[in-house]
């Protein structure tokens, strides 16, 4: 197999499949697309459109301008308790609080690592469902006072479902099954809580804000499409109607729900799409990512290519590196060949992720030598590639580790 420049960058050895099935025979989980129906959370101010907010305050007997006033408190100042808002009539404060600001996510526990710059929070939803989010600060210089810190940025990894129905055998979330979809309000509530923590200056690096949102927590975001798109808009709509975050700072990840990728393409939103590929060949990906039994590698990559072509946003290919399973140079070469076949204008970037350990897992991360050989093969083909800086592994807060259990 040769690269476009004619040089032989990988051996022609055939692709090797695992000697044993990746999922224990008889214990494979089914794919679940329709979330179980459970009691819906109360509707929150987040869940309403701008027009609906105006009508809602009028229905309470308040003038229309109060809607923008409420939104400024919430989306600009991250204030969530209307009973303290002195610019609202005292008689209206309790009404507004009760009607529009139910507590959607309740913190149950918090774990920190990386010098308190990585924080994993376990949230309880109204029906007892548990989800997790992970807040990560980058660029914090140890030993430097907060008022002298610069270039500090924060990324928040949020959940979109309680559990996940995609049944990937190497992922703790996927092996826990799907409990239910989250509402737009519940998804954005994770962001609001992080904004409150950052603006207070509670974490090292001084006061700040969330710069990037990644839908890479619990759940398959595109399986909860309507709520996730509502959250994307609430996060990115200009203040005071939303949080005003740049769409370019939002990443939505998917295992490859092709019809939903096509739907996302039609939205025309310049957000980043991340594809959890993990194998370039259908035979292995059928086992690693069970959705591949419905939408094959070529279908997924075609949809990703069309997304990049339409939005002019580079697609990220996420690839978990698992020792002796998917980390051979031959697979790197096949991955490069398939990506190159669709275009050569920098439309794609490969993000390699060392497998993070999960309880009872029989797999481990690739050897460093195999990881380096994989990187070199991709680079020789001219494919941009990085190895993710794993954060939060010791608190089970890294990719594939979120299981949302009370500890």
From TrEMBL:
Domain Radical SAM core residues, every copy: 150-394
Subcellular location: Cytoplasm
Catalytic machinery residues: 132, 399
Co-factor requirement: [4Fe-4S] cluster
Binding site for S-adenosyl-L-methionine: 219-220, 253, 276-278, 356
Signal peptide: none
Gene Ontology annotations for the cellular component aspect, listed alphabetically: cytoplasm
Reactions catalysed according to its record: adenosine(37) in tRNA + 2 reduced [2Fe-2S]-[ferredoxin] + 2 S-adenosyl-L-methionine = 2-methyladenosine(37) in tRNA + 5'-deoxyadenosine + L-methionine + 2 oxidized [2Fe-2S]-[ferredoxin] + S-adenosyl-L-homocysteine; adenosine(2503) in 23S rRNA + 2 reduced [2Fe-2S]-[ferredoxin] + 2 S-adenosyl-L-methionine = 2-methyladenosine(2503) in 23S rRNA + 5'-deoxyadenosine + L-methionine + 2 oxidized [2Fe-2S]-[ferredoxin] + S-adenosyl-L-homocysteine
Known EC number: 2.1.1.192
GO biological process: rRNA base methylation; tRNA methylation
SUPFAM superfamilies membership: Radical SAM enzymes
Gene Ontology molecular function terms on file: 4 iron, 4 sulfur cluster binding; metal ion binding; rRNA (adenine(2503)-C2-)-methyltransferase activity; rRNA binding; tRNA (adenine(37)-C2)-methyltransferase activity; tRNA binding
Binding positions ([4Fe-4S] cluster): 164, 168, 171
Keyword field contains Acyltransferase: no
Region (Disordered): 1-21
InterPro entries in the cross-refs: Aldolase_TIM, Methyltransferase_A, RNA_MTrfase_RlmN, rRNA_lsu_MTrfase_RlmN/Cfr, rSAM, rSAM_sf
Protein keywords: 4Fe-4S, Cytoplasm, Disulfide bond, Iron, Iron-sulfur, Metal-binding, Methyltransferase, rRNA processing, S-adenosyl-L-methionine, Transferase, tRNA processing
Cofactor note: Binds 1 [4Fe-4S] cluster. The cluster is coordinated with 3 cysteines and an exchangeable S-adenosyl-L-methionine.
Main location per the UniProt record: cytoplasm
Family listed: Belongs to the radical SAM superfamily. RlmN family.
Further facts: Reaction proceeds by a ping-pong mechanism involving intermediate methylation of a conserved cysteine residue.
PANTHER family: 23S RRNA METHYLTRANSFERASE (PTHR30544), RADICAL SAM CORE DOMAIN-CONTAINING PROTEIN (PTHR30544:SF5)
Functional note: Specifically methylates position 2 of adenine 2503 in 23S rRNA and position 2 of adenine 37 in tRNAs.
Protein name, per record: Probable dual-specificity RNA methyltransferase RlmN
Organism: Luteococcus japonicus LSP_Lj1
Lineage: Bacteria, Bacillati, Actinomycetota, Actinomycetes, Propionibacteriales
